[in-house]
């Protein structure tokens, strides 16, 4: 279904808003120190950090891929996300204080300081990068580009390059400050969009009883 003029305006406003906030963060950010670049100068409040953490874990793969898996397999696919709630609490209350006390900024840096040498640090950094590219980043890029392709009619690979270019520009130039600012805005948009999508979906299938009936007879 082709997008109408109002839909195009909303998409354009979204991109302009995200880019504008990202460039504003780049202008205000202190990127001259390691702490300023990787830790946003330790100046962010808990709400912005929480919103950024939420958006970093929830993305287009959930709206497109996980929703489709749930429609096919049921609520069992939600077990991973439900476990993440407990693990994130464990991370925040047990591990983060250790990292802060050690004065490290990354996990490879902590491993190097804890066990000595650079081989473990390089190995863990390379392994994390490879796994993230093939299990997380590739899925995010494909599902995001798929949405752009279906809504705007753009080429799939062109959409992927656009997403990579925007992300690289804001992240590399602005550091963690730009990431947190843009993530905070997107957190509100994603929650609002998810609530609207949930309401519309339940209305289309006949309320809460609709999915249960349809799944049992599919």
TrEMBL record:
Keywords: Membrane, Transmembrane, Transmembrane helix
Membrane topology, as annotated: Multi-pass membrane protein
PROSITE patterns, per the entry: NA_SOLUT_SYMP_1, NA_SOLUT_SYMP_3
Record keyword Cytoplasm present: no
Example of a GO biological process term: inositol metabolic process
The organism's taxonomic lineage, starting at the top: Eukaryota, Metazoa, Chordata, Craniata, Vertebrata
Record GO terms (molecular function): D-glucose:sodium symporter activity
Protein name: Solute carrier family 5 member 3b
Subcellular locations according to the entry: Membrane
GO cellular component terms, semicolon-separated: plasma membrane
NCBIfam families according to UniProt: sss
Name of one Pfam family that matches: SSF
Transmembrane regions: 6-27, 78-100, 120-137, 157-181, 188-208
InterPro entries: Na/Glc_symporter_sf, Na/solute_symporter, Na/solute_symporter_CS
Family under the similarity heading: Belongs to the sodium:solute symporter (SSF) (TC 2.A.21) family.
């Amino acid at each position: 279904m082709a997008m109408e003029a109002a839909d195009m305006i909303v998409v354009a406003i979204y991109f302009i808003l995200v880019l504008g906030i990202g460039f504003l963060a780049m202008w205000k950010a202190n990127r001259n120190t390691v702490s300023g670049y990787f830790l946003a100068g330790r100046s962010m409040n808990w709400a912005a950090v929480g919103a950024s953490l939420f958006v970093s874990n929830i993305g287009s793969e959930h709206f497109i891929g996980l929703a489709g898996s749930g429609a096919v397999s049921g609520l069992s696919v939600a077990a991973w996300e439900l476990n993440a709630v407990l693990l994130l609490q464990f991370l925040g209350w047990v591990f983060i204080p250790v990292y802060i006390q050690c004065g490290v900024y990354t996990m490879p840096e902590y491993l190097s300081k804890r066990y000595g040498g650079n081989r473990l640090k390089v190995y863990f950094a390379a392994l994390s990068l490879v796994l993230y590219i093939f299990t997380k980043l590739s899925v995010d890029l494909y599902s995001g580009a798929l949405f752009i392709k279906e809504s705007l009619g753009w080429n799939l690979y062109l959409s992927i390059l656009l997403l990579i270019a925007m992300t690289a520009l804001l992240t590399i130039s602005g550091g963690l400050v730009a990431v947190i600012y843009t993530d905070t805005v997107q957190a509100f948009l994603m929650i609002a969009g998810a609530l609207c999508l949930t309401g519309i979906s339940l209305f289309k299938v006949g309320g809460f009883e609709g999915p249960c009936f349809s799944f049992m007879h599919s």
